[in-house]
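Record type: monomer structure entry
Structure origin: computed from sequence
Chain ID: A
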Amino acid sequence: MMAVSTIFLSLLLTASALKAPPLNLKSGEAWPWSEENSAPIETTKVSKEGNLEFTKKTKVSKCAKEKLKRQFSVKVPDDCKILPDFLATGKKKDIMTQKWAYHNITKEETWKTWHHSYKQNDFRLQQAMNKLMSGSQTEKVRVVTLGGSITWGHGCQTTQHWVKSLNKSLTSTYGSRVEVTNLAQPATTGAHVIANFARKQLKDPLTEADVIIVEYQYNELFTRDNIERQHDKLSFMLLNLPKKPAVLFFDLEGPPQYGRKWKGWGKLPPVEKSLHYNAAARFQIPIVWFADVEREMGFTVDWLAPTHPNCAAHEVFAKVVHDVFQSTMVNVCEHGVQGQDIVLPHMENEAWNRCVENRALQAHALDGQKSFPVKSAGDWSFKEDVPGKPGWIASEGSKKEIVFTALPIKFGGLTIQYLQTYENAGAITCKLEQAGTAREVKSMTLSGLWEECVSLESTSQFFDIPAGHYDLRCQSDGGKFKLTGLQTC
């Protein structure tokens, strides 16, 4: 028995010795790096400035150097300034008494929301948290949130709103070094970002972001768009931004009557039911799946009628995202920035990406009436039928025509954005004509009415349009219709 134990211990020690050295290299420290089953090929060290330095002892390939740089060229702070704990409560059912009581949500419960079976990659999140803890006072860390009406603020517009709570937690610790920008817009999905990325209000903050949190899961339960393709586009577009930001999907499964029930999910579905799951696995993006906290707690958040959570739920949302940041900080402080960046698939030359990067026309109602090249509006009116939600509106009654003129086409694409809702909505027929003539090139009919009990901005597209200039002639069928955006490439 003693011999067996000795052999086991020897094997255990040998296995430990074969593990890669810890990655928390401090200034001046060095360790020999090697490929698997080979001798050390070069000694590296971290300079005082946090840069990776190579010695000249042994020649090493450029490929190996780049691989090593991606993995280890981040300075680990000597004095980690980690986010303090965030307190939030939720109702939890006692197993013994089956009674509900308020319970402080623990980090162990929130941890399970973003540690899933697929290979998620948090390398960029580690970099962002490391920058936040160790950067200079003049170097900002920018967090951007994308989403629909929940993240915009419907249901909770107090300081308890989850983005405001997260911002307060970050700025109270790091002051002006951290900046949180909320780009959420009611009634939108990820398609809104793809179509309107050229808008300065979107492009500038996203281009400078270190962390981007995406909350579109609930709205996208209702959309008729090609969700798989849309998620691939959005994931690539965000991950391929110049600053290489970390991207997180913050997914809410929605209230029982509109999410779990009609989708057949059952109560508290697993992360595999996330609409982002396939894209997240493909692009190794962490999903923060809120249902996991609800499952751990044995409770569901309170949703105001019909589709928005209340402020108490927002506090829990903020707690979950805060703990993702805090947990990553602790890991970076203990082990340094580990792993390596993801390798993105080659999508740069796909038609949709060329359109995103080469907008010929970018018009959206949020930018005002003058952003649209209108030739004649007829009885259409540019106005807000709901506060804060402008658009070109054909009122109910007779058929109404609007013409947009001289739309430039370079790469064959035209996108139309419009509202789909559950009552008092009609349809329009849009014809694309060569500018200055009545010759029709393409046409489509768009319905503003659907069966879902929500209102969302939808997109439809013309493809393979020959280069040139065109007029777009849209006529309503007598029902109310709201057009919110036009983009060409």
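Annotation 1: The first helix runs from residue 2 to 18.
Annotation 2: The two ends are 75 Å apart (CA to CA).
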